[in-house]
Amino acid sequence: MIPQQWNSVVSGQSPRSPSSQPFISVSVTDPAKMGNGVQSYISYKVITKTNFSDYQGPEKIVIRRYNDFVWLRERLFDKYKGIFIPPLPEKSTVEKFRFSAEFIEMRRQALDTFVNRIASHHELQKSDDLRVFLQADELSMEMARSQEIGIFKKKPAELMQIFKDVQSKVTDVVLGKEKPVEESSPEYEKMKHYIFELEEHLAEAQKHAYRLVKRHKELGQSLSDFGKAVKLLGDCEDNALGKVFSELGAKSEMLSIKMQKEAHHLLMNFEEPLKDYVRAVQSIKATIAERGNAFKQQCELTETMKLKEIDLNKYRLIRSIKQAEAEHEYEMLQAESEEATRRFEMIVRIMNDEMVRFQEQKTLDMGLAIHEFAKGQARLANGIADAWRSLLPKLEACSSQTPNHQ
Amino acid sequence: MMGEHSDNNTTQQAHLYTSPDEMESLLLDEPSLTDRHFASSNSSSFPPFADVATHDPPPLSSPSSISRHGNPLSSLHSLLEPPSYAEAVFRSFDRDQNGTNNNNNNNNGEVIPRDNSGETSSSSSPTSMSDYIWISVSDPQKEQELSNSIVPGGNAYFTYLITTRTNMRDFNGSEFSVRRRFKDIVTLSDRLSESYRGFFIPLRPDKNVVDSQVMQKQEFVEQRRIALEKYLQRLAAHPVIKNSDELRLFLQVQGKLPLEKTTDVASRVLDGAVKMSKQLLGEVEPIETSQPARGGGRDFMRFFKELKQYVATDWGGSKPAVIEEDNEFVEKKEKLLNFEREIITVSQQAESLVKAQQDFGETMGELGLAFVKLTKFETEEAVCNSQMTRASDMKNIATASVKASRLCRELNAQTVKHFGKIHEYLGVMLAVNNAFSERSSALLTVQTLLSELSSLESRIEKLEAASSKVFGGDSTRIRKIDDLKDTVRVTEDAKSCAIREYERIKENNKTELERLEKERQADFLSMLRGFVVNQVGYAEKMAKVWETVAEEEEEETNDIIGH
């Protein structure tokens, strides 16, 4: 769960409502199972409270399902290159048919975090797609979702660009040129290395965290079984010792419940934030890929321009009729090259800012998660100590009764 | 590694030195932690751990690098607080139930708590207050079987050195050793079973029918050594058996074991029940074939055969159709049966609990390790302050997790010891079952003899009635009657023997049941206490570990928000 302070954000300068302090707060709640069998899915209530001028306020409730969230993310990823788009919980293929309560709760929490992060991001919150997501009726949402199909999202000019890319790539291969299509600045290298290794470390930590949750559950089960068996043993004896056994069994069962509770707490407040961290890093990797693409585009355009320039000069020299066309193409290329450079540099700038934000946010998130972990474990340990300690007086009384010597 | 918990420090060091675990060799730098709590400390010398050489931790200002080439022990020791009150309390309880055992601990053997030294454990006989006997089994050596070797090289077997220390009068001397092999143990066990029918005799280790390859393996030999030691110690702990000739001969007489092997179960029964039966058999056999009139004799033989069969199949099998008239006994037996059923379940669940606890500790440790790596990574790659803060948070959780994992492991070692008591009682129940079987078979003998007697009597009556009708006497019948009357006499003797034997076994059962009751109460009570105190102690320690981290996190969060 992200810290409460992020839920309702006060954004600095927003063009939306210059008069009062703009705010927006979103919550994803009330998961409900819809449909039957293979077609079943979970729907969520998304409640938006805002005073943004182009939103229906003060409160709007819509029903959304997981794929709607996926749509939103894809749109944002596409439009806001460079920004670390908040991650989504994974698609589930296995559990689809048997949504456990725990799974649903984990997903709901992750979706809630997702939307809130977007709503509190100074740029992303301005997105039209966000507005559609938060405000549109279910039918429009479904229509919007089904329109998004792969490559046709791209504008015609970009399409051209792609073909040109392919062209230049082919030329390269044919000519046997090895073009450096990756950034090579030390800062970039360092950042990339950092992100990739960080994911590995985090994934390992998360794996163990998840296992630890399972261990809690297993230990809880063991305690319960043990308690039951001891209680039965106590019933066999009809003396003070028997009563002690019964009480021990009861305590054991009680601790089993505490253990299960802690398992859940650990899952939601430590393991899930860790998983979220992993996803965030994976999202950054995707952004890095975008940056790489942008860089590559820029490089290739530059290369193509150079080649075109050579051609152009050739034509100028021999006064070929092709010169005019070549000039025109060259100008187009120039414009695109500038555009590509601009895009790339923007991505770099944005990523730098995002990185700083990311580090700060993650420190907060981790700090909280670690705090919750420690608190939970302390609570559990104290509970265990208290439960067993309460047995000691009875044990003492019993041993003083039992004759130790003839 | 689970053994002695005689001293927290030693245990910690034992863990550190003996375990190859990556966790153990972890170089956890703790200057930040210590510096926060202790104003100016450049040397991490905490009194309880002063025996470990420490080196000065670096000051806090520099970004603490995890890969410091310092003395790992100092940093690790500085992680741990001095023993808490709880630990002192629960350790004293452990000592309490062990009595003098801690003095006798050596690497080879663990003395079983019920040492009957009389100091703290419940002893039913006040005269044995000063009796003390301690046995260890060590030094397995391979020896060759000299004769009857079909295989060239012969059969190899192991002998074990059995050392006894005692102050009991019957023994010559206070310390002595003999070499015995497993076959000797079997002989000892068999002889004890014969001589002490009705007692709850501890069960000997299994014969383990394995092939000779496995027999040679060190693991197998070591397991057997441990099992033998436990067995002998249990025998020595039994108030009656410890005084037995059989045990004394076994422990003391050098060279060949002066106990006869017994092979035939039936002859054992015959020995006990019918002293004269052997004579009878000697008498009957040659005559049996020629004299059909010796019907009584043949019947006698037949029923003993049946008896032998019955005893052979009775172990743990179907209950015989004997009518036990002692209601009190029947009640107690029922109760023990219930107890046995429940104790088996408890034993199984105790095993699972220990396993679950162990897995928990392991995973906690792995989590800690993962965070150590993360911390190291973030520290090395840090480019901004927030990363440093995060790294420090992660270090906290890493150290706490590793600490908690260690505590868990220690707790489990203790728990295993305590639960061992439960598992031992499974063996005790088997011994009890054996004793009850002896009683049943003895009763069956008596009842069979009684019914045999009555059938003999009725046959005599019939013969006498028939004979009296014949004028002048019927010499054939009279001879038959005489023979039958002889048989009756012998059978009467046998019956008296059998009854005596049965009564004896009943008495043994009774005294043993009383002893079991008391010991069971005391044993389980001390086990529960030990278990509970342990749990409390370790839970308190763990709570402290986590509370420390939680507090620090709170401080940090406040700092950050404050900024």
Please characterize this protein's 3D structure.
The complex is a heterodimer of chains A (406) and B (563). Chain A is α+β, with helices and mostly antiparallel strands and 406 residues long. Helix content of chain A is 69%, strand content 8%. A 4-stranded antiparallel β-sheet of chain A has the order 1-2-3-4. In chain A, helix 5 (156-175) crosses helix 7 (240-318) and helix 6 (186-236) packs antiparallel against helix 7. Residues 1-14 and 150-155 of chain A have low confidence and may be disordered. The two termini of chain B are 49 Å apart. Chain B is mainly alpha-helical. Chain B has a 3-stranded antiparallel β-sheet with strand order 1-2-3. Chain B has helices spanning 8-18, 31-37, 72-79, 85-98, 101-104, 182-195, 212-216, 218-237, 245-252, 265-273, 277-290, 295-314, 327-381, 385-469, 475-562, and strands at 133-144, 156-166, 175-181. In chain B, a hairpin with an 8-residue loop joins strand 2 (156-166) and strand 3. Chains A and B meet through helix 6, helix 7, helix 8 and helix 9 of A and helix 13, helix 14 and helix 15 of B.
